[in-house]
Design goal:
Number of strands: 6
Helix content: 40-55%
Order of helices and strands: EEEHEHHHEHEHHH
Mean pLDDT: 81
Radius of gyration: 21 Å
Low-confidence stretches: none
Amino acid sequence: MRASTRREFVAGPAGKIECAVDEPESGSSRGVALVAHPHPLHGGTLDNKVAQTLARAFVELGYTASGSSFAQRVGRCATEIEQEHGAGTSSLFATKYAVDDLAAVLAHTGSKQPVLAGFSFGAAVQTRLAQRLKPERMALVGLAPEVMRPTALALNILVAALTGYRFRRARFCHWSGLWPFLLGSVPFAAAGGIQSLSRGAYYAA
């Protein structure tokens, strides 16, 4: 945090939301940059270094950076959320709660077209918030597993298809030499795809 960082509390859907606000030194702001931190269950706080770096970057660009700490209901343990809403719902409801909190902070700022920035879980939350409005721009770092899995799959299929087409068109490969690699890659790709990392392992990596 900078020495000039202002702490304030905003009324949220389930209680007060702590915010850290940084203003540009010029005193004239070109807009609001809303910064979201990683998941509270995995050490995500207002003081996260990557989130702070994002905030400083936008302040230097002339924006008012507002970082918000997700309300206590986001930080509840997964067991409590799943007991209340059902098995497998902790991630879904944590994201929804965080989006609602950020929307409340955004309403407090009065900005209609903010910059949305986030790291890890915060990046996933911002992609959901962006569906409710039209942000000026987005800066997302390290997507969360829920966003990374389908994104990585789509990109891998796209890159493999384009590369295969170009190699085939340039006559760089022939089916007689390609089929052993295809037969070998499919089962290994399937084996890798069924593996599931825990959230702790994902964020640690």
